[in-house]
Amino acid sequence: MNFFPQEYFKKDWFGLLIVVLMSGVIISFFKPAFLSSFNLYVLMLSVSLWLVVAMSQMIIIAIGQMNLSVGAIGGLVAISFTGLMEVHGFSIPYAILTGLLIGLFCGFINGFLTVKTGISAFIITLATLYIFKGMNLGITEAQPFYQIPESIKNFGNAKIIGPVPYLIIIPIIITVMMWLLMNKTQSGRNMLAYGNSVQSSELMGISPTKVVITAHVISGFLAAIGGMLVVCRLQLGTPNIGDSWLLPSFAAPVIGGAVLAGGKVDVIATTLGVIIVAIISQALVIFKIDPFFVQILLGFMILIAVFINRYREYKEERRKKIFIYEASHE
Amino acid sequence: MFKRLPNFAVTNQFGLFLLVIFFVLFFSFFTDGFSSRFNLFALSRVVAIDIMIGLAMMVVILTGGLNLSLGALGVSAAMFGGWLMETVGIPIIPAMLLTLAMGGFLGWINGYVTVKTGVHSFIVTLATMSIYFGMMTLFTEAEAFRKLPETFTDFGSLKIFNKYVSPLLLVSIFFVFLLFYFFKFTDLGRKLIAAGANPDAAELSGISVGQMFIYCHILSGLLAAVAALMLTSRIGAAIPSMAGNLGFDWLLPAFLAPVLGGTLLSGGKVTVFGTMLGAILVTLITNGLYLIEIGEFWIRFFLGIILLLAVLLDKAREFFAQKSNVLS
């Protein structure tokens, strides 16, 4: 009987889980304040937001592309959402619905242009980044919207039980849905197949148009939710929402072992990647370390993760070679 | 002669050149003050730096990669230069050389990590962007160097050619010709292109592709440092935020100029003069949009649209070029 199956060691998320637990234990040993109710609340809030942003990027990484405009979509939706309520007197459900539609539409434009022109997603989303951001600034003239309905403010502040914020419900639902999408549905598998090899996926009869547009639409949708979550949390709609999303959006999936060439993403590992980034950022605050260190550290973490992934790929290739060698010599 | 004409007419540079002339005429007719001495001088100062930024990105695009850390790298190098000149008190020329060395070194880090890990340069430079910018902010405590030697800052406000042009533009044009010569006539330059165009073939013919890619990143770092020094000289101070947060403000001109100029994103092709024309066109349009009073905030929107149109046009041009090849 194997009490601790070897299988777990090979999972992407296993090592990350150890890192999360270890860092939690070490930090709370030196600073018991880390486990204080308030601190856990702040931690969960930041996890909530980054989770959505990371998933928005992860699905594009799955198809082997990148989306620079995640933050710009989030920002445009955030100001539209608040602007519609403040200036045009939309009720909350209509404002949410319009916000989501804007996100879907932005994602659709990205996907459509990428797949129909064959130009790299990097350039397309760099262009749409400026288009969406330009619209955002053009509409707001860099002024925030302050008039947020009380119920939204309350939603952003309320706690379910103890330190658990209400806000975390939406990201949890999204994460579960994303796990189901990537692991249990045909369209998720199609995306991974497309990311793995465009040519062979086409030979298998997978429509590139459908895969790419679906992925970008989901990405836009998630970015829109991310933008609105920030509004709930900040209690205002500022035009600079989303400006700082680029690095964290890539950090979590990469730390979670996503292969940037596409075809391999892990929802659980990405989630743990988000938690690691959040814990470390939080720890630096607790230890009163310069906030710019967070940026430097995040950069280093991406590089280290890249090296580790590379090493694991190398080991895996070697293992396969030995296996083939042994098999051919039996 | 008759057969050559259509070929020349479909080249990117020619189209760009026509566009530049068109926009110059358009803005001179429809805006006040476009052709004024003051505006042309201001334009030449901006164009000079955009050309350098475009070239710095171009040499990395040559490898099929890209350099997101361009702005962060440039600003870090310039802040280092500012520190050398103001705090340490080193004379201008050695300080500038050390700044370039710093730029080259930061570029080398990008190249080394990219080649050794085999990961796309996008993710490597995304990480180094944040590391460089973070380190720079930490070391400078986000303070600017405002007491730079006057000879250095005066250069940026100098006016030549009947006060129409900034000497900074001459520096850029010098680098344009230097790079043109480098890629066209030197052994190393050709090797870089060969490595970018077809890494496997280059490797087989005895070129160390990894080494070449590292050289491209070093060159990119050097050119970014030159651009940042020119910007410092123009502003008259080395300011941590002169390229925006994380140096992000440089990114759009950096991609626009080479892409408009006809540099292939898949690598293996450089167009030095195309990049220069691309940078001129972008600066021209930005400047014109300001003069039309379209509203400062919509400028980004239009630049995004222009980038989109540029790549779409490029695609269409490629398509028609192939079609006419097939027909003939």
Task: Provide the succession of SSEs of chain B.
Answer: HHHHHHHHHHHHHH
Number of DSSP E strands of chain A: 2
The Rg value of chain A, from CA coordinates, equals 21 Å
- What topology, given as strand order, has the largest sheet of chain A? 1-2
Shape type of chain B: globular
* Oligomeric state: heterodimer
| CATH fold assignment of chain B | ABC transporter involved in vitamin B12 uptake, BtuC
Describe the sheet with the most strands of chain A: 2 strands, antiparallel
Alpha carbon gap, first and last residue of chain B: 16 Å
Number of helices of chain A: 14
Walk me through this protein's architecture.
The complex is a heterodimer of chains A (330) and B (328). Chain A has 330 residues and is an all-alpha fold. Chain A is built from 14 helices and two strands, in the order αααααααββααααααα. Chain A has a domain of 211 residues. In chain A, strands 1-2 form a two-stranded antiparallel sheet. In chain A, β1 and β2 form a beta hairpin. Chain B has a single domain, classed as ABC transporter involved in vitamin B12 uptake, BtuC. With 328 residues, chain B is mainly alpha-helical. Chain B starts with a helix and ends with a helix. The longest helix of chain B has 29 residues. At the A-B interface, α6, α12 and α14 of A face α6, α12 and α14 of B.
Structure keywords:
heterodimer; A: 330 residues; mainly alpha; two-stranded antiparallel sheet; 2 strands; 2% strand; globular; B: 328 residues; ABC transporter involved in vitamin B12 uptake, BtuC; 14 helices
